């Protein structure tokens, strides 16, 4: 078997269990050595079957065909983009935008669209990710993923060497990061040129290793975000990835 290919049996397993991730892989540059799904020889089915990948596939499955086509197009360049520190984080940040689609669908919106990248022209203000409509409302939404800190990802991070330290409260650095992320999202929402009656930020957060064990931090984060809600009529919602 070619080192950068998968067998017919493995393809059938992918298609049966992870059809949209498999579709993304099939349309990617499969022979690129930096292709995320290849890893060393191929993307192992056992690893793909972890809860994290099942959660991603479940989210992608909620998208209609047109929405998936647009999100897939946006995600494809990042399948082969391997950052020295953050690895393939941008790929998963992009796929997280599916959570915004789901949020709007669960709010009763029927016509939900990813805003075309062509509208994000050079020198123009950056726009939000999604626009959605129902009979009495038009909403725009920006998904922002807050990832682990640089210190957490370094080879010298304490958690990599068995030291797990749960801080008593949110760090000032994390609070500043959340504030700047919300401000960036507000700017994108306010740059949308058409009339809307709802502007929504959906924060998807990943705590640093070690902090994930501190349930009190999730409660503190919810309170921190709540104090920033509805400023300039922007609604802020939050999903913590455990």
Which helices and strands occur, and which strands form pairs?
Layout: H1 8-17, H2 19-26, H3 45-48, H4 51-61, H5 65-75, H6 89-95, H7 97-106, E1 111-114, E2 130-134, E3 137-146, H8 150-153, H9 172-190, E4 198-205, H10 215-226, E5 234-240
Parallel strand pairs: 3-4, 4-5
Antiparallel strand pairs: 1-2, 2-3
Helix pairs in contact: 1-2, 5-6
Describe the structure.
40% of the residues lie in helices and 14% in strands. By secondary structure, the chain is of the alpha/beta class. It has 2 domains: 6-72, no CATH class; 96-240, no CATH class. It has a 5-stranded mixed sheet with strand order 1-2-3-4-5, with helices on both faces. The radius of gyration is 19 Å and the shape is globular. 27% of the residues are buried.
């Amino acid at each position: 078997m070619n080192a950068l290919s998968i067998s017919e049996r493995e393809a059938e397993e992918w298609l049966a269990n992870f059809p949209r991730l498999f579709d993304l892989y099939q349309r990617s540059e499969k022979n690129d050595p930096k292709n995320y799904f290849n890893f060393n020889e191929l993307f192992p089915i056992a690893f793909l079957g972890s809860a994290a990948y099942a959660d991603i596939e479940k989210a992608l499955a909620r998208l209609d065909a047109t929405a998936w086509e647009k999100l897939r197009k946006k995600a494809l360049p990042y399948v082969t983009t391997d950052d020295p520190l953050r690895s393939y984080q941008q790929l998963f940040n992009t796929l997280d935008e599916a959570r915004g689609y789901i949020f709007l669908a669960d709010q009763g919106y029927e016509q939900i669209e990813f805003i075309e990248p062509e509208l994000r022209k050079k020198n123009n203000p950056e726009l939000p990710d999604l626009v959605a409509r129902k009979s009495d409302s038009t909403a725009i939404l920006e998904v922002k993923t807050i990832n682990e800190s640089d210190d957490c990802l370094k080879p010298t991070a304490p958690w990599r060497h068995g030291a797990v330290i749960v801080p008593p409260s949110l760090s000032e650095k994390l609070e500043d990061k959340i504030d700047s992320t919300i401000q960036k999202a507000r700017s994108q929402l306010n740059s949308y040129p058409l009339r809307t009656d709802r502007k929504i930020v959906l924060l998807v957060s990943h705590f640093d290793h070690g902090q994930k064990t501190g349930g009190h931090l999730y409660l503190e984060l919810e309170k921190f975000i709540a104090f920033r809600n509805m400023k300039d009529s922007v609604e802020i919602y939050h999903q913590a990835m455990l």
